[in-house]
């Protein structure tokens, strides 16, 4: 059927250094993937708790009315213009916190998906943010804010950029190591 397989065990003897090295690499890869999956699951749990239930932002109970902002940049401008009144912490957490909290999502997303493109990351970052904002609106825990959609999506993209940089550095390191090994 045109499929070729290599039986590693018949090519490499069990006690050899190559076999031990190969098994070590496989174990390290499995551990690394497991750690990444665990970190991603913990991150998603943190997002759910922080954005929906954390009492830091007054999410201790249900509001009596729906709160929403459908005008882009309204809340960003308000927090910036009234930063002295609302405090620097409130301004920072609203403007930069929404970006920072989605950066790990943009970093982990390409690792967890076969589709590692810029547009996939934009789509999923926006989609997750839309789900969170919609949940906050429906349950009256927090408010639906289009500025948060924008800032969360920017955070996902920033995480993606960090992933691309890390992947490029890693590829460069691996290629240099391969070149050095070939010269020997």
From the spread of the alpha carbons, the general shape counts as: elongated
Helix count equals 9
Number of β-strand runs:
2
The major beta sheet can be summarized as: 2 strands, parallel
Radius of gyration: 23 Å
Poorly predicted runs:
none
Element pattern in H and E: HHEHHHHHHEH
Record the strand order, biggest sheet: 1-2
The chain-level mean pLDDT equals 84
Q: Pairing-aware structural class of the strands and helices?
A: mainly alpha
Distance from N terminus to C terminus (CA atoms, Å) equals 38 Å
Helix proportion:
over 70%
| Proportion of beta-strand residues | under 5%
Can you tell me about this structure?
With 184 residues, the chain is mainly α. It is 73% helix and 2% strand. It has 9 helices and 2 strands, in the order ααβααααααβα. A two-stranded parallel sheet has the order 1-2. The longest helix is centred in the C-terminal third of the chain and has 38 residues, at 146-183. The chain is elongated and about 70 Å long. The mean pLDDT is 84.
Short description:
The chain has 184 residues and is an all-alpha fold.
Break the fold down into its secondary structure elements and pairings.
Elements: H1 8-11, H2 17-53, E1 68-69, H3 74-81, H4 83-86, H5 88-95, H6 97-100, H7 103-112, H8 118-139, E2 144-145, H9 146-183
Parallel strand pairs: 1-2
Helix pairs in contact: 2-7, 7-8, 7-9, 8-9
Features:
184 residues, mainly alpha, two-stranded parallel sheet, 9 helices, elongated
């Amino acid at each position: 059927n045109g499929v070729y397989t290599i039986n590693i065990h018949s090519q490499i003897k069990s006690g050899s250094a190559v076999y031990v090295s190969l098994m070590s690499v496989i174990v390290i890869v499995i551990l690394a993937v497991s750690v990444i999956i665990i970190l991603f699951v913990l991150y998603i749990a943190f997002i759910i708790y922080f954005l929906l239930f954390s009492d830091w932002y007054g999410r201790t109970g249900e509001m009596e009315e729906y709160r929403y902002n459908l005008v882009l940049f309204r809340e960003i401008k308000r927090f910036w213009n009234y930063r002295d009144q609302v405090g620097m912490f409130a301004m920072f957490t609203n403007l930069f916190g929404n970006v920072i909290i989605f950066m790990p999502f943009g970093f982990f997303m390409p690792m967890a998906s076969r589709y590692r493109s810029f547009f996939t990351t934009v789509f999923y970052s926006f989609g997750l943010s839309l789900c969170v904002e919609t949940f906050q609106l429906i349950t009256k825990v927090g408010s639906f804010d289009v500025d948060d959609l924008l800032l969360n999506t920017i955070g996902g993209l920033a995480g993606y950029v960090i992933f691309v940089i890390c992947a490029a550095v890693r590829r460069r390191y691996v290629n240099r190591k391969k070149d050095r090994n070939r010269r020997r």
